[in-house]
Amino acid sequence: MKAKPSPPSLTLGGRAATPIAFIRAIVLAYHRYGADPASALAKAGITADMLDNPDARVTAAQMELISGTAMQELDDEALAWFSRRLPWGSYGMLCRASLGSPNLGVALKRWCRHHRLLTDDITLALAVTKTAATLSITPHRPLGEMHEFCLVTLLRYVLGYACWAIDSRIPLQESTFPFPAPPHASTYPLMFRGPVCFDAELAGISFDPRYLDLPISRDEAALQAMLQRALPLTVLQYKRDRLLVQSVRQFLQEPLNRAATAEIVAEHLHVSVRTLHRQLQDEGSSLQQLKDETRLNHAVELLNRSQKSIKQISALVGFGNEKSFSRAFRGWTGVSPQIFREQKISVSEPQDSCRKHPANPSSPGLLAR
Question: 0.85 exceeded by the pTM?
């Protein structure tokens, strides 16, 4: 991506999690072009001792600084991955070419198609099923010592752009890599949140296909601002998830998950409990509201489509006794379960604790701020 080297005031502190192997790959790029990486290493605060230590790590700021410097000095945004240079601004061009897309799905297809104009050493492809959207990379020539760094960085480029374009974190269902687990494999879950699989057929990331339908929410002015410091998108996690409410709702609809704790829900979505609560609050919701909505939907279905007693239904939807169920149901709908069944009342929007969310679990939810 087009990214200017950060100003000297950029702090190089923070958590050191990026493997030194990626810095070594950048040093190798300098050597392939017959250039000296000393200045770039010094600017990023990376010493010879760190390069010699396979367990060393650098911070996101250090990675951003040395990557941006190398891309400019070598005039190659691919950092010697491919058989020809990708001149400064190449990935910015891909961003711009995809910006006018109506949604993320079209944008990613354009990205994959236009990337072929830059190099034929690899092919990016987007495959979509009902349950997963998978972006994969197929190499067409050996990438040698750049194999890991190229595949990891490219996937993070595209994922970072996708998150930026729709202004949302995109949780990953799986990330796959066609090489054995490296010595620094423990850092992969930090770079690709979710299950990580090595020795796979192809490098790729998979996520919920619903994200492909989200509209592009950025314009040319936002693009210009992003391109000034694009690399943080590849080394930092995007925080907000526009489909979080839908994802929690979908998880709670499974019978075994209806009583799930915040810890269980957060683990399933690969976020912290604190992040789960904060993001739900940002979307005007809460875990308790979504649980109440799920219980109401289940109760309504049982009242309308079964002959089970109110006592049986109260137990099936997670209440300890019939009295507490009836009290909650009246709060949600304004009537008791018995009256609801007798009068066959239609509930399109629960009241009180569920007021902000339609009772219909297939509701599209909040897709914009």
Answer: no
- pLDDT value of residue 176: 98
In the chain, where the domains are located: 16-235, 244-354
Q: What is the pLDDT of residues 180-220, one digit of tens each?
A: 999 999 999 888 988 999 999 999 999 999 999 999 989 88
- Which of 69, 102, 77, 96 has the alpha carbon at shortest distance from 222? 96
Name which of 67, 78, 90 is nearest 5 in CA terms.
Answer: 67
Q: Where are the alpha helices (DSSP H) in the chain?
A: 20-32, 38-43, 48-52, 60-74, 90-99, 104-118, 147-166, 188-191, 220-228, 232-235, 244-253, 262-269, 273-282, 287-305, 310-316, 322-333, 337-343
Phi, psi of 37 (to 5 degrees): -85, 0
Q: What is the mean predicted confidence (pLDDT) over 11-15?
A: 57
| Distance from C-alpha of 119 to C-alpha of 286, rounded to nearest angstrom | 47
CATH architecture of residue range(s) 244-354: Orthogonal Bundle (1.10)
